[in-house]
Amino acid sequence: xxxxxxxxxxxxxxxxxxxxxxxxxxxxxxxxxxxxxxxxxxxxxxxxxxxxxxxxxxxxxxxxxxxxxxxxxxxxxxxxxxxxxxxxxxxxxxxxxxxxxxxxxxxxxxxxxxxxxxxxxxxxxxxxxxxxxxxxxxxxxxxxxxxxxxxxxxxxxxxxxxxxxxxx
Length: 168
Fold this sequence. Notes:
Blueprint: H1 3-8, H2 10-26, E1 30-35, H3 42-57, E2 61-65, E3 78-81, H4 86-89, H5 92-105, E4 108-112, E5 131-136, H6 148-155, E6 160-165
Parallel strand pairs: 1-4, 1-5, 2-3, 2-4, 5-6
């Protein structure tokens, strides 16, 4: 879903337009980007989304990746992996201070959720989150699929900004 694809992909453009509209009208500052299964591309989606929102709408957004094994896949965005902030990872209060400082300098902070391989051991981060974006892939589309992470989000009364089918 990079800018080159958008020009030829009306579905991707519509997703970006809808998310931009929701960001302007709902005003969430911190957005959790997650999926119900690991390796559904939610991290890549978040990075591409931030890149496209910056290029198309001039949004100043930051990506904080909570997955320790992840890396930046989209060049030219403001990105930080939690593992590189060793003083923050072990102290939730320092993480909250860091996020507060980021929120002063960015329109939004997109937080890439760490979804464990054993889904039942996944938890929501213990930070203030305004809304969530959930990606779906072939792994999680279907009526008999588990929605453990979605249920965690619903139980926390966290507004869902959108459900996006993402194909890496």
